[in-house]
Amino acid sequence: xxxxxxxxxxxxxxxxxxxxxxxxxxxxxxxxxxxxxxxxxxxxxxxxxxxxxxxxxxxxxxxxxxxxxxxxxxxxxxxxxxxxxxxxxxxxxxxxxxxxxxxxxxxxxxxxxxxxxxxxxxxxxxxx
Length: 128
Hints:
The chain is built from 5 helices and no strands. It is mainly alpha-helical and 128 residues long.
């Protein structure tokens, strides 16, 4: 590789980054709604825990999206990890109540990001 040559991010990594941006926006919107509910209801663990989870999830997703161009292995594995936690969260939510369109959409997006980050082109991008 020549020093002046720039590397282009593979389409799979760009797609994963785009999906994570959509997740980030949706998470922030839902977290804002939960925050409003929290201010109306007062201190309630049933509202506080999802609120804190939403904030933490959004922060990790932002970190992964921002650092994706660094090509570091920890970024890829952190992205896979947070998506895995999201999948577990959606599956547990499905068993505790009837899954709605939002849960199924969230589950599909998380599984898609995991699949995109595990393909060989993504692995090669982060392993270089």
